[in-house]
């Protein structure tokens, strides 16, 4: 396998994993809705039993981290690509077709840290949710 193919595979897999994590976060929020005391809850915003506040926070943190990671990546790619475009346009027309650029080595690091935190947040949320629901049923 060529290195470029490996990176393409990596991007595909992280994209799919990110989609799964996002879906799990929304599904977890739906579970919280189901266990929010339903008809017994006071009128107004959703009222969660005390044991579900932590999982709710972790699920919301998952979605916030997802938004933060996507935003960082989109803005960073745009910023670096626009800079490369300006450098390319300053070249002779013959050299423009051959112009290539790479991102700085440090560029993916913040997105990967955010991605890891997002994975941890959704795992914590589901473990905490499972423990809270199991303790209320046992």
What is the gist of this entry?
The protein has four helices and no strands. The protein has helices at 3-34, 53-89, 93-96, 108-137.
Detail the topology: elements first, then pairings.
Layout: H1 3-34, H2 53-89, H3 93-96, H4 108-137
Helix pairs in contact: 1-2, 1-4, 2-4
How does this model look, in words?
With about 140 residues, the protein is mainly α. It has helices spanning about 5-35, 55-90, 95, 110-135. The mean pLDDT is about 85.
Order of helices and strands: HHHH
Largest sheet: none
Number of strands: 0
| Mean pLDDT over the residues | 87
Work out the count of structural domains. Answer: 1
Helix content: over 70%
First and last CA, distance = 51 Å
By helix and strand content, what is the structural category? mainly alpha
How many helix segments?
4
The rough form would be described as elongated
**Beta-strand level of the residues, as a percent range?**
under 5%
Descriptors for this entry?
single chain; mainly alpha; 138 residues; elongated
